[in-house]
Every structure is written in structure tokens, then in C-alpha cells.
Sequence to fold (699 residues):
Amino acid sequence: MMRLEQRWTALKVRGVLPQKLFTIGQDYGALIALVVLILFNLAFTRQLNSVIAITNLLVHVTPALILGVGMTLVIATGGIDISVGSIMGLTGILTYLIFSGKWFGIQNIVVGTIVAMPVALVVATLIGAFNGLLITRFKVQPIVATLIALITVRGLAEVTVNGFQFAFLSAPIVSWLSGNVLGFLPRQIILMAIIVAVFTWLMRATSFSRYLLSIGGNQAAARLAGVPVNRILIIVYALSGLLAGVAGLAFIAFDSAANPVTLGVGKELDAIAAVAVGGTPLTGGRATILGTAVGAIFIQLLRQTVVALNVPDDIASVIIGFLIVLAVFLQHQRKAS
Amino acid sequence: MSTVSPQPETRELAEATAATSPVRLLTARLPWLGNLLRQQGALIALIVVVTFSFIRYDNFNTVTIYSVLNFNAQFGLIALGMTFVIMTGGIDLSVGGIAALSSVVVALNSPHGFFYSLVIAVVVGTLVGMVNGFIVAWMRVPPFIATLATLYIVRGIALRLINDAASINLDQKSDFITVAGTTVGDGVLNPPLPFTIPLLLIAFLIGILVLRYTRFGRYVLAIGGNAEAARLMGLPVRRTTFLVYMFSGMLAGLVGVLLAINLNGGSATEGNGWELIAIASVVVGGTLLSGGVGSVFGTLVGSLLLGLIVEILQLENNYMLDQGWQFSFSSFWQDVIRGVFLLVVVLLQSYLQQRKRIKGRT
Fold:
């Protein structure tokens, strides 16, 4: 009996087994919850019983997940970026204005699209970099700086088209991005998977991620240790802006319309919820990109499950609210102990 | 806010000669001016904007001011609750949702009369605030997530209460019409004040007194400054945090009543983005989002300033039409102007803060 316990402890020390049974829930809570939800769906609903249903779920989760990846980086530095929803909106509008020939007068729709996408993404990146500049150079708190961008960028999106809504149906980017590879896999999902893979690698294997996490852990200490804090922060916010732009493109590909008043409104909150449920603490210093991906998929699948069970949509948002609190509550027990 | 101790005469002069910008030159020679700008910058801006408007626009008069105050009373009251929350270092994203829920509750209860629905709505707002407070103070969930979750929850409940209809009308036979037209100071003031203005002013007066003269107010600032230190000193951190969110919910519930009066009904979808307007008011008023420092009066000024900026957009359009200009700002410029204004204020605050820091170091 004694020896069994010793072996048990040895396995724990070597990291083969978790330290305490309780910590399984803390480290892999979101993943376990997702697995449970998937099993539940396989048994009781028709949410996941076909390839189309699964890809449909992933297409719906794409914008929030891409935003969530950028948000994970920002939150890991101890900041927050609430401007991403507005940046999504502006990206959609800019893309429309350019490929439809309203700006720059490009008549060929394919050429227009090829020009439109980089321009929109550059603008999105610049807005993010401006956020970073405000935060580093002018010492504005992240939530205030990005609040300014949230209000102004949404206003700019409305002003450029005077608030009208536009259909995207004829755009090559829409048909291309929502088109399938191998007959079943929409390109949006591949795009999302590439982004998740690249940023997971970035956070595992580069000195950039070490710098980023050290800033989130203790900014003053990181500065004293020679970390280029300002440069890293500007890059992080610029990346968040860029990913918001990509999310905007992914969103119009699936919604095929751009409404400057509503496109991306409140999406920043969905992204933050995904990050929080995924296990990245809002205080910074730690980050898990895969956790965020799991969190985003979990929230979307939960919403669909609740609706599939014929629960009204409004009750679904009540349930999601409670589960977000519960998930974050359970994860924060770790810091207390 | 701590005041900067007066510097020796020589250092002032040396700094003045070394300084390049005219503003720096002026504030170095007149240190009280720098302090005034730093502490009452929003108030000075408000006075300047009001004076400018009086001179430029013919139809800018007390009626315009009343209408700005009347319309911004709902944002002002929400910002008042938000000020206390932010001073503890927290944030409350659920206020717009609470106001919407409360307006729905008012509309549903309107057959029972105004005061009955008022009480029920405020109680509902307070309860949601208590839930927020419990989640933040006892479950230790970060305020951003906790109040985001209650935002989802209260919006869901509000929609459920009226079976997914976007809005519901007030009972037309109830006494709401008389309440909506209530004015204060008939015979003394011309025109008399709509009741929302004294309500707003009294609420802020209470807020100022609570922050300045009560133990609770001191606790709020102490917790925002350093929650751990406050706990070690034996301050009731959890209770104070709980109360702050409760009051914020209570005020949002009250705002829901005003909203129901304005809309002549309840709306489950109204109040989107109100939390952002409230946060912007608090920031313009000079309260730091990191907590521990703040001014309730500043929030009132900030809220009026943001409301006035939007009003001036309308006035400027009319003015330019009168002058025969062809260009006019569409209402979509509102957000751009609000955002740019916020940017200017924040940059100015940052400039003055950094100056203060540099001065403190030398």
C-alpha cells in the first residue's frame, strides 16, 4: 500500500499524473466541458451527426475565434482590446467600398478584391498600432484607449457609407472564402486553423512570447530586465487589429452583407468570454491559444445545443451567462489555493 | 488627488527658461494654473463650450440646456453608479441591460400605478446589482467577466418577460402621463425644470457627500488604491465592493424608469452601449480606471460635456444652413466627434499627468 502511494507520488512529480485530482478540472476544465457537451450532443441532439453540421458549427465560430486569438495575446500582456468589433465593421465596409469601385474607381471586381483585402487589413493593423501607441507612448489605460477606438472607428464606418447596408453576394472573396476544399471543408475553417496553429507556435517557441508574458506578469520588472516593452505592446495591439480585420473578412464571407451599424457589434465581448472560458487569466502573464479556441467552440456549441433543445434564444443567453461565470469561477480557484 | 507642493522660486524660473512650449511656460510661472487644469479641466472645458455656444448660436438658451440635462439625466445617473464602481478598481458592463430590464418591468407593472412600478423596478435593479456584487466580491470573478455575464442574463430575462417582442407599451390609463410632465419650480423658474434635472443634481450631491464625508466613501477609495492593503488594514473590502455594485444596479434600475417614461414603454433592446457612454463620462471627469482616485462632480461635468458635444453638432448644422453653407454633418458624425473629443481629453490628461510626474522627480 505504502509503495503504491510512493509510485503514485513519483508519477505526479514527473508530471505524468496531475498533482491533485481537483486540478484536472482547473487545467483542462474547458476541454472536459467541451467533450461532455459533444458527447451530450451525439447522444441527444442532431447537432453533430453530419459533416455539414460540424463544419457549420466551425464556420459560425470562426470570427469570434480569430478575434479571441488576438485577444488572448492582448490579455496575456495584462491589457484588453474592446475595439476589435468596430475594426471588424470598418474592414467589412472598406472592402465593399473598394471592390465595388466606389473608392479608387476599380471597375474589375477581381482586381478590386485583390486590392481591397490588403488595404482593409493594413487599415485594421494601423488602428491596432495606434491603440498600442496610445497605451505605451501616452500611458493611456488599455480599456480607455481601445474605448476611444471603439467609438471613433464605428463612427467612421457609419460616416463612410452614411449608414447604408450593402450586400456582398457578388464579391469573389465571399464565394472564394466560403467555398469548399475537397468538397466539404470551407476555406474559412482552414484559415482559422492556420491562424490558431501559427499563434500556438508563436506562443510556444519564440522569444516574442516570453517577452509578452513577462510584460503581463510584471511590466516594471520586464522593463528593468531589458524587455522592449513599448515595441512588444505596439506589436501585440497591431496583431489584434490585424486579426480583427481578418475576422471581419471571415464574417462578411459567411454573412455576405456589411452593415456599418451592426457588423461586429458586441463581438469583443464574445471574444473576451472565449478567452476567459478558455483559461487565460484576465490579469495577464499566462496565455493559452488552444484554450481560447476550445472556449470559443464551447460557447458556440452551447448556444446551438440550447436552441436545438427548443429552449428559447433568450433563455439560452441566460444559461450562457451563468456558465461563463461558473467557468471563470472554477478557474480562479487555482490562484486562491 | 494630491496637490503638488510648491517648488522653490529658483527651480520654477530655471524650468520656465528651459521649457519650450507656451503652455509649459505659462504653467511653470503660474503653478496654480497647472493644478487647476489638472483637477478641474473638464469643468473649464464645459464652461468654455457653454460660453462659446451662447455667443455662436442664437437659439442656444435655457431651454436647450434643460433639454440636454433632461436627456442626459439617464446617462448621468448610470455614470454616477459607474464612478463608484470604477473607483474600487472594478467595472460594470451590465448597466445598460439592467436599465432595459427595469424599463420592461415598469411597463409590465404600469397598470398598478407609477409608484408601485417605480419601487418594483428599483428593487429589480438592486437585486441584479447584488448578484454582480456577490459574484465579484465573494466568488472573486473578475468584474469585467462577472458583469458581462449578467449583461447576457438580464437581456435574456428582459426578452423573456415580453415573449421576445422588442418592446411593450405602458398602460395608457395609468398615471405615467402626469408623472412624465412633472416640473419643479413652477412660478419661480421660467421655464420650470423637468423633474429629471433636480433628480440628477440631488443624486450627484448625495454621491459627492458620500464620497467625501462618509466612511464608505473612504473605503471605496482605499480599496481602489490597493485592495490587499485595505484588507490587511481590516477594512470591509467584500462588503464595500458588494455595496458599490448594488448601488450601481439600483441607479440603473432607476434609469430604467426614466427610460420607460421617455419611450412611453419598456424596451428589452434599448441601452446598448450605455455602459461605454458611462465609462467615457467617468474618464472625461478625471477618474482613473485603475481605481483609487476619482471625482463624482467630475463625472457629472464629463457626462454633460459629452451630451453637449452631440447637441452642438445639431446646432452647428442649423447654423451652417443659416449661413448658406452646403456642407452639413450627418448624425453619423456623432460617434466620430464623441471619439475624437474623448481622445483629446485623454491626451491632455496624459500630458498633464506626465508633466506632474516629471516635476515630482526633479
About this structure: Residues 1-56+346-362 of chain B form one domain. Chain B touches chain A through 47 residues (CB under 8 Å). The radius of gyration of chain B is 22 Å.
